[in-house]
Write a structure and sequence with these properties.
The chain is mainly α. It has 26 helices and seven strands.
Length: about 600
């Protein structure tokens, strides 16, 4: 498991891929509607940016807890790295310079983060499996319609996938340089400041770091002793924290007595200082072992520090407010979700949900190489365990195992029957870049095998003569479907599902997050009477306001909260909300819609108008 530096050509290619992805997202975002979550984040980001105005004009007041709570309390169930970037971007490009529309200015940092994924996929895929694999992983990622759709949004699901990939890349590169190990800790801090998914990363990466350190210390007793001391330091701190919980009378008492001047803080400082001292001592004995352990120390120390520093809301009450944040996600609400004809309202959820949902939403021409690449990796690992079969295959390297484990981590977490299942596929996005790299590996092997066969018949044949047609065969169907379904990404279903009509027949969630209402807004703008009362089902007040602020909905129309108060109803087709359509029939005295959004003849949004 060695981290190879990227060549100059690879760096330039990665930069070009980042620019290409960024420009593609920026140039197409105007057609994408505002999801319920996104409009909440718009409002939060705008409020946060006002705190920075206060910071410039009255720093002393800005640092008071009352001023911080007033600005940062809204939507404090999520960290604020991305919302802060959204707000500062909006403050600069919309409020100050006036060069962007309202929503674009908010979304710009999200494009920059999402564009990191193709670039990093290329760098990691090329290093492990060659340029062909890197190119396929990079080009295929944003061709998945649901991934492209989420990349357009000022939300956290695509940014945390990018940050997860960045942390793994830094961790892998740390084996060649301690600076990359420190960068891994910084990236981890930024990742947990993006979304709580990243809190699982130390559990994924620690076994690889310890295994690498153990291998590197083989035959070096002094290095083994210092490795044991490093592990012992972490174990001792963990035991001390556990004893504190017991002796203080449980988690609540532990939380209340976690103060700046308390044993809790002393243990953390001891961990930080002890790690630095032990690693400096270890560096004199074995640089490879040191490099393997630096990422663990950096994540353990820099992660919590950066998380605290990035979020002003934590500054005056870090323990209580962090505990509330963690408890919120540990006990997250369950939302109703339609899956294979069953309306799931609570656990236990089907164990196969995530795998089936992925198979039915990722274009089949991309899903097939993902499965092939992952099965090939697992198959090689299993065959390499047997004495008779070991000679048949090449044992997977630790780097390949790192990719394989990260390819399934998010999937396994969400697959747990007690974990809330909603939101389409966005909650396991961190797995998708790694599955894309494994898909690239499978495609690269296939291209090479085909080239070998053709070369035997025609020695002058170029590898590109094989790679280009294979890429076209696999990528063009996904691109064509992406264009066909855009901008209604949450309705995208693959060929395995039979497309949108097949998914509807299977009893799958047709769409969610309310963004599809953009398909009927032009009709409402053209036909609503002046001052009309509009009920946009599943569209919250913030989104209604954002459609008007961005010129997508007439400013004279007014939002109402019930079909009985409305002149026009746009009903978002959801199995769990069918009664809203029945109520509209009752309120309007008609079952005949005036228009709607139909994708491949599948109803998504249905519009009713009150008869005069």
């Amino acid at each position: 498991m060695t981290g190879r530096p990227a060549t100059r050509e690879e760096k330039l290619t990665a930069l070009a891929l980042w620019v290409l992805a960024f420009v593609a997202l920026w140039s197409t975002e105007a057609a994408v509607g505002f999801t319920r979550d996104e409009s909440v984040y718009f409002a939060a980001a705008e409020g946060y940016s006002q705190w920075f105005r206060l910071l410039l004009h009255s720093p002393a007041q800005a640092f008071t807890d009352s001023a911080i709570v007033r600005a940062w309390d809204y939507n404090h169930e999520h960290p604020v790295l991305m919302k802060t970037l959204f707000g500062l971007s909006h403050l600069l490009f919309h409020d100050t310079l006036g060069v962007m529309r309202d929503a674009t200015a908010f979304r710009l940092p999200a494009f920059a983060m999402a564009a990191l994924v193709p670039a990093l996929c290329f760098l990691l895929g090329s290093a492990l499996y060659g340029r062909t694999a890197g190119w396929f992983a990079a080009l295929s990622f944003l061709l998945v319609p649901r991934q492209y759709f989420n990349a357009e949004l000022a939300c956290f699901d695509m940014p945390v996938a990018a940050m997860w990939l960045l942390v793994v890349y830094c961790f892998w590169r740390a084996l060649e340089s301690t600076r990359w190990g420190i960068a891994c800790g910084v990236a981890f801090g930024l990742a947990i400041a993006t979304k709580h998914n990243a809190l699982f990363m130390p559990f994924v990466l620690s076994p690889f770091a310890l295994w690498r350190a153990w291998q590197a210390s083989e035959g070096a007793p002094e290095a083994r002793v210092r490795l044991a001391r490093f592990v012992g330091l972490f174990a001792a701190v963990a035991v001390l924290y556990g004893l504190l919980v017991v002796f203080l009378g449980g988690p609540d008492a532990f939380q209340k007595k976690f103060l700046l001047l308390s044993p809790h803080t002393l243990f953390f400082v001891g961990l930080a200082v002890g790690s630095v001292v032990l690693l400096r001592d270890l560096k004199q004995v074995s640089l490879p072992v040191t490099r393997a352990l630096v990422p663990l120390a950096a994540m353990a120390v820099l992660g919590p520090v950066l998380f605290y520093l990035h979020w002003p809301y934590l500054w005056h009450a870090p323990v209580d407010r962090t505990a509330w944040y963690l408890a919120f996600h540990a006990t997250h609400n369950h939302y109703a979700w339609f899956y294979l004809g069953t309306l799931m309202r609570g656990p236990p959820f089907p164990l196969t949900y995530v795998v089936v949902k992925t198979a039915l939403t990722v274009p089949t021409s991309l899903f097939a190489p993902m499965v092939t690449g992952f099965v090939a990796l697992v198959g090689r690992a299993l065959l390499s365990l047997g004495t008779r079969t070991r000679e048949w295959v090449r044992m997977p390297t630790a780097s390949e195992a790192l990719v394989g484990v990260n390819a399934v981590t998010s999937i396994l977490i969400i697959s747990h029957p007690q974990v809330p299942h909603f939101g389409g596929v966005k909650h396991w996005f961190p797995s998708m870049p790694f599955l894309g790299i494994l898909a690239g590996a499978a495609v690269a092997r296939g291209c090479f095998a085909l080239w070998e066969v053709l070369k035997a018949r025609r020695p002058s044949v170029s590898p590109l003569a094989v790679t280009v047609p294979v890429f076209a065969l696999l990528l063009l169907p996904a691109l064509m479907y992406l264009v066909r379904v855009f901008p209604y990404g949450t309705a995208a279903y693959s060929e395995l599902a039979g497309g949108l009509p097949g998914a509807a027949t299977l009893g799958m969630q047709r769409q969610f997050w309310s963004s599809h209402v953009t398909g009927v807004l032009p009709w409402i703008n053209a036909h609503a009477k002046p001052g009309a009362r509009i009920y946009l089902h599943e569209v919250n007040g913030f989104s209604f306001r954002d459609y008007q602020r961005n010129g997508m909905l007439r400013e004279d129309v007014r939002p109402v909260n019930s079909p009985f108060d409305a002149d026009i109803v746009a009903y978002q087709y959801h199995q769990e909300f069918r009664e809203h359509e029945f109520l509209t029939w009752q309120a309007f005295g008609t079952r005949t819609p005036v228009t709607g959004l139909y994708l491949d003849e599948t109803p998504q949004v249905i519009v009713y108008q009150r008869p005069e």
